[in-house]
Amino acid sequence: MKDELLKKLSACVEFGKTNKAALYPPQMKGEDGADEITSQLLDEGVGAQEILTGGLMPGMEKVGIKFRENKIFVPQVLMSAKAMGMSMVHLKPFFISGAAKQKGTFIIGTVQGDLHDIGKNLVAMMVEGSGYKVIDLGTDCLAEKYIAAIKENPGAAVGLSALLTTTMVNMEQITKDIKAVFPETLVTIGGAPVNDDFCLKIGADNYSADPQGVVDFLNTKIA
Amino acid sequence: MKVEFTYQFEELAIDMDRLRKGLGYSEEPIPELFIDYLKKVKEDCRELTDICGAFRICEELQFADNKRSFFADGAEFKVGRTIAQKLRKADKMAFFVCTAGKTISEKASSLLKGEDPVFGYVYDIMGSAIAEAVADEVQHHIEQQMLPLGAKITNRYSPGYCHWNVSDQHKLFSLFDENPCGVSLTESALMNPVKSVSGVIGIGQDVEFQDYQCSLCAMKDCVYRSDE
Ligand code: B12
What's the rounded Cα separation, in Å, for the pair B184 and B202? Predict the structure, then answer.
């Protein structure tokens, strides 16, 4: 029963089935969604930890890989994130009380001078679905904002996003400022104009072209 | 000469193919849910009153010897070799700024952040499509205006593409005495509202228009790419 439900939950995340009433995806019409299945799992006595690692994470991993391979696109990823969010509502109290633990903390924000946020939001959603606590600082973030967040969350990794070459340059100063206060903090960068060479040049720790790349990076470095 | 037009959503030729690609369904059928969202967004867009396009034609032109830049009204535009070559035969330049407006830009971003990100995303790609469609209209308008004068136009080129640095937008905006279409520029050369595009079109008897031109761009796996 438990395994069956976890499998179903994972499929809800993979295909973006939020709750029973949802008409999307068409092939799952009328079936229970992430909302109902999470309640059922908790009723069965399955822990939040296991629901996260055995249900949500495998689903989100499939989403990340399919997105990377251009098999699904942004709207489907957002549907998956919505399904995951439905489940997380039930699980959050356990993470807050400490009864269940996430793998680590990830702080993300779009850098100073830049207002783009879809890319950053996608990264945030997938990292959360991969078992991390995510703190989203929003757009147009100064170095101080990242630093304050790291102070509150020791050991967290930081993600910087930018969509224009004119704002990408701010990543360099922000990375330097962060490293000056917290030399050990891992900084990972991304966005359309960014690449590996730039990452190396500014002294950041990682560049990923897509959200799954950050997840892989975090899994090897902080999990 | 500066010209500014506002547009109704219905007047614009929205590229449905682009919308489909943005939603991720270039071949397969779009799921019902997304079709409903699209319908709703289209309906809402009829209410928009701040879709706008502005252009200014500069006649005082000079090309630099380095073949990478030109001067218009005294400002140097470092467009890079590829774009400079395309514009070289122009004897006038039309600089433009087009926007889908504040309303849709803000609606998209607030939905994306909050209640319904998927709906927000549909707004978002519609906002992009509107901005491009306005640029199509402006381009068409300029073309028609030049026809009786025996002049043709080039494609449009934008700062941020093809070795032309985004920061040149500051010079482009300085050619307009006040914020064109209410679009302002941040220090980092970002246009506000977000759903805006800017650029230049060459005008002259010997210039050429080419079918577009993804091959000029380095973003090989862009979802909108259309040259494969
Ligand atoms: C749609 C689009 C537009 C639309 C909408 C803009 C908007 N953001 O709302 C319109 C038509 C209005 C537009 C306008 C312009 N655009 Co534009 N646009 C795009 C396009 C095609 C897609 C952007 C997008 O929404 N992508 C979808 C999201 C989900 O992807 P993403 O944000 O990149 O995020 C992904 C990754 O980058 C990564 N990621 C993002 N953040 C992070 C962070 C971390 C830590 C990690 C690991 C990963 C990561 O993961 C995300 C998911 O995969 C891109 C090209 C492209 N294919 O990317 C150009 C692009 C962003 N635009 C560009 C430019 C130049 C402009 C203009 C300046 C052109 C002009 N002069 O008019 C204007 C500027 C607008 C402004 N307000 O100032 C350039 C920017 C590069 C540069 N030279 O600076 C690009 C890259 C195109 C190019 N070929 O060069 N644009």
Answer: 24
